[in-house]
Amino acid sequence: MKKTSLSFMITAGILGGIFAFSVSPHLSDAFDLSGTLGAVIGGAQQYRQIDAYMDHINNTDDGRNEYFQALIKDLGVSDNDYYTRLLDDIMGRLTQGIGVSDPSIYNKPYLYFLNADQTFNASCGLGHVMTVNEGIFNLSENIDEIAVVIAHEMGHGQKDHVLHGTRKKLKTAIGGTILAGAIGGSAFSDKAMGVLTQHINNVQITKKAEWEADNLAFDYCYQAGYNPGAGAALWERVIEKKGDTAGNFIGEIFSPNDHPGHRER
To answer: What is the DSSP code string of 190-219?
Structure first.
């Protein structure tokens, strides 16, 4: 009830602000209060739909598999068997390493695949669904360094950083439709899945959360038996390469706008 009331008050406040500045005093008598109230209630219902949908994708096997298959369809799977085997080995070792301090990982094992994108990047979405770019193996041949990046993404997954960021982004996307009335079930799910698959690399995650993921990656790699100095070595490599066609090999994980600076890391 508190959640519903808060959604109602926030939406009402937004609508109130809009109409306070956009409705002429001469038209106030013609203003349909019941229509506005209906739009507010519709908005609150949409927000409840979003929360339920996020929970479905993040916490149920059916939802996680729906998202996994949608992501595969959108990005495609790499046919490089050698890199795929390397990724399988890293994911297996990191899962065991994470399990030392956080056994909850076994309750929601990661669903992952290698895609053919040649930029150096990896992404963890909702429900512990991950995709790793083939290009992650181009910058470094050192498996310990690659494990750092994958462990960072798993840190986001273990702390549900992506859930919070995706929920916020999806609410923003849906929010613009409040004045037009509620979205139907199929339209809602289509729009939601579209946002999830098209914007997995652009979810708004705070720098505080990025620091947490970096620190978790250090612990996870150490617990998995990887060289704990690999993180520093990786960032030195990135700094050296930064001036060489950076946009061709560096993905969102290296964006200084969304992440701590390279030297800091």
So the answer is: HHHHHHHHHSGGG----HHHHHHHHHHHHH
